[in-house]
Amino acid sequence: DGGITQSPKYLFRKEGQNVTLSCEQNLNHDAMYWYRQDPGQGLRLIYYSQIVNDFQKGDIAEGYSVSREKKESFPLTVTSAQKNPTAFYLCASSTQLVGTGDRSGNTIYFGEGSWLTVV
Amino acid sequence: AQSVTQLDSQVPVFEEAPVELRCNYSSSVSVYLFWYVQYPNQGLQLLLKYLSGSTLVKGINGFEAEFNKSQTSFHLRKPSVHISDTAEYFCAVSPLQGGSEKLVFGKGTKLTVNP
Asked: Residues of A near B (CB-CB distance < 8 A)?
């Protein structure tokens, strides 16, 4: 089945550590995204990538880093600079209609999410 | 910039009762509108979206929503809910020009269906 796979589902981080969340998709989507979800806050965009080897900061990129070396993969690293990393992290992807400005109507597909807790 | 207000953070209803989850948005440009559903400890799944045409949009699981441009609203409705509809529902908007990275979510409404 096509979809988005996030791992691990649960992750614990000690103070001062960097941790990496994995995201793999087999939907052949060009665009990929990372969102952070806090209770009662909705979803906030951390980083996004529209094409391999290119990515852009979202609304809350500080303390996070990403890479996009392959179309299928978009890992997120939560660095020690992120002061409040405990949250639910969602990876997502969508198609890109190259050559048209009308890309924002595309459906975004989400993975199952990863819980990160600082201990 | 766009913003989304979901007027109720929690909505409890009894099984087989009708439900309406309210969503209002603010934008200086035309937008696309979406409703997503999130079951506990899972990702989000698209329920329905409005891009153009008929203002009444039908989605999965018997849900529908009506776009009202004058009131800048996109309320979600279901005539008869089931226990399995218990979940959190997110309204989202995106400007017509640009990419899906411009999608803005509301804070969510938790729907609890009681027997």
From this structure: 4, 31, 33, 40-43, 45, 48, 50, 56, 58, 90, 92, 94, 96, 101-113, 115
